[in-house]
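[SOLVED] Need 3D model of a two-part complex

Original post:
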Amino acid sequence: MDFQIEVNNKLISVNEGETLLVALRNNGFKIPTLCHMNRFAPTGACRLCVVEVEGKRDLITSCSYPAEKGMKVKTNSQRVMRARKSLVELLLSNHPDDCLYCQRNGNCELQWLAAEMNIKERKYFGAKNQQYPDYSSTSVARDPAKCVLCSRCVRICEEVQLVTAIDFISRGNQTTVNSAFEKGLNQSSCIHCGQCIQVCPTAALFDISHVEKVQAALQRKDKKVIFFISPSVIASTIQSTDLKPRNLVAGRLASALKRSGAFKVFDLGAASDIHILEEAEQLVDMLGNKSEKPFPLISSCCPSWQKYVEMYRPDTLRQLATIKSPQHIMGSMLKTMYADEAGIDVEQMYTVAVMPCLAKKHEASLDENTHKGLSEVDAVLTVRELFQLLKSFGLNLEQMEEDILDIPFDNSSAAACKLGYSGGKAEAVAAEVYRLMHNDTLENFKFVQPKSATAKKETKVQIGKKMVGFAWVSSIQEAEKYLTALKEEERNDIHYLEVMACPEGCAGGGGQPISRGFTSVHARKKICLDLEKTKDFSFPNQNPLIKTESQNKLPDRMRIPYKNWYVKTFNEK
Amino acid sequence: MENEIDQIFNRFPNRQREDLIPIMQAIQDVKGYLSEEIIARVGDYLEISVNKIYGVATFYDNFRFGPVGRYHFRLCHGTACHVAGANTLLKELEKLLKIRDGETDKAGLFSLEVVSCVGACGLAPLIEVNEHYHTNITMESLKELVRTLRDKENNTYER
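Solution:
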């Protein structure tokens, strides 16, 4: 049922049950908010969304007030504007004012608000709360002094990722967002997904930066810096810069990194190919009753999910695919086989992963991912940090020539691109399992996407005599819900489950450029889908790099063995 | 053997979120404060994140996270006591006990807490030591009080 309300002397139509804020925004009225998040219950904490409603004594928060028939709303009255301005001025009164030194300078909602409200001077003076930054974690840093207590990080951590690593501590003007016992994030239940950074309006949460580390390594003569770039980073580079033609953007990135002093630039997709092959092999073994593992096989490439299972779901540890993640397949290949092949001293090799992910920083720091005392991956750059690095060297991708990536890891299959979004990996594994069982490829194989957003994301594929069930979930909340339902309904028709800890998979990863909603996340997913079509080959086994049984003859290029080469075990933590 | 924490848990068999505060109060009555280990156990029992519990517990002034001293000073800072000079008393007391508000001294002898009105405004200013009220406090009587307690403690050790 539609009805009309009057806003700023203009009639707009509203759907029944909408909040005032949604109705106003749908009709093009700009209402500032700090605490509002789509798909979450309104809290009315920041009060910036106040509007004046005729007949109401007080200003009302539009985010938490349902639109009513015959309402007369003013969004820009003097009273509203003054209230909003005071609110921002009060927020600023406890803010360090160090925009010039801030990593979110120019990309900060508080800064934008101050500009929108035309705030030209500090109005409230007084003691600021003494607060200290927390650099204890391997991935996420906090600076509570910049926090505006909007509660977005707290809510996404609790409601979407179910870990509640951060929460409000204390009360009143002493309130801070902190981890339990104020001990620092490294001792909390944080799974390093970085979703809190994605929703933070200011720089109260930001990444533990590896940019300076990488810059230092690039300057050193005794270091050979090797970058490897994830296909989804290329997708988000395309999304942020809108460079064309799209299939050559990776080459431009490579030439930019070469100019900044990189020794080699590789495509991580090669390692993703191996990862998919290994995972498909494990599933084939399970389907052929050659393995003791209980169904479903659960993907383990997402380090946040890995940590979540190790901490919260030890009962499902056995079901995780025992394979290193693509990043560490690449890292270990580089520091062993490639180093031997190219005659590089491993001590001189400095490997840098460029990832859409923050948890990869954590993963790279783990003991289990070292080789003879050396980290397999020395530094991990998020997409944001990659742009920062290029900016600091004054490199503009538009002016870069279209180079090619370095041999041997210069190419990857379309399947490797599928790891960039939720559902893609399950699709790639399904196609690969089909190939292994039938010795035949499924051309243009695509999963049927569920029609409604709430439907279970699963599909069945006829492989051999069996209907094999594949399911995919993104975000811990979905994963937890799905696994619980599987157990309760005692289902055994699902054989493979893909879990990505970030909503919408790596396209919505914590290391992506600050997304502010799902529009740019979906755009990135679409670019991933487009990139798949530009690839020379569709299936991981067609990667000339990978040594399969049929191609035992060693060609001039280096070939990589697979099958049980990158086994990883998981332990309860 | 069941310990006292389990006994408290047994009183709340439904394991609901709303049991959190009563459980923490009961534990504090027995243990005197909430330690990290105990908060973690409460979290296990109610299936609530430790961080969430810590957030709730820090919201209320009632909950303590460290042990109190043998003599726990609660200085009233209600309106009447404030007018009667509670601030001056607080400064003096901090000097005498060599601890700040919310702290416990290293020997575990004294701890100090500033509380809101305890409801004895006619007797302001006042200090509560181990649930015993010392009323109409002056600088002299405050010094006397601390000295008496110290002496008492020293004598105990000598004996």
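Edit: The beta strands of chain B are 71-76, 110-115, 127-129, 132-134.
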